[in-house]
């Protein structure tokens, strides 16, 4: 796998009322094509800021972000975002929510229908295509949000605690569903989470950030293929190791 996303000496300083806060201090990271990389770290350390810089929504104070050797200076169709709060349009049906981005970019109707049908099936939403958002459970809403991001065939999917608002059982179901989708697509995923269990279950690599100003504390490669057994001694040992590193940064999970 080749390097696909590159963060080169990223630094981010926020200014307010003549005060400067260094959020991110000299982060460099390379992510390979088709990898799923999770970012863990203390609350407020800058995980989401890193994600938003890859998306082109936040500009680094210094350094640069490259996607497929092109410098990121603004949002683009090659990157899709999935948010924790679903960010769906309540007045549109499930189908219409998923196809919204394709409508904006002028994708022909027949192609829109075919692509939406594919993701309705992948997400197990084929019986809810005409349902309204208020009729859906939290897990179903998040499946719609994930389908809406992926149906545009972005090269990179950026996920900001996408399952954080879900109950434990639904969260596990969504994680398993994401793995099934990974097997059928070729997207590169950057996944921000507070859950060590989730990171170990899903990731090819896990990036642990320090407390603010954030730097990279450690990058851990998860050595086993997916799907993974959460109850295995190896899984438990890696989870414990990561928790220990986070606790050193004054994080309890």
In short:
Helix content is 34%, strand content 26%. By secondary structure, it is an alpha/beta fold.
How would you describe what is shown here?
The mean pLDDT is 90. This protein has helices at residues 47-55, 94-98, 100-104, 109-122, 138-150, 168-184, 196-202, 233-248, and strands spanning 3-16, 19-32, 36-40, 62-67, 70-71, 79-82, 156-160, 188-192, 205-209, 216-221. The strands form 2 sheets. The protein has a 6-stranded mixed sheet with strand order 6-7-8-3-9-10, with helices on both faces. A 4-stranded antiparallel sheet has the order 2-1-4-5, with helices on one face. The protein has 8 helices and 10 strands. The protein has 2 domains: 1-78 and 156-253, 3-Layer(aba) Sandwich (Rossmann fold); 86-153, no CATH class. 35% of the residues are buried. With 253 residues, it is of the alpha/beta class. Strand 9 and strand 10 form a beta hairpin. 34% of the residues lie in helices and 26% in strands. Helix 7 crosses helix 8. The longest helix is centred in the last third of the chain and has 17 residues, at 168-184.
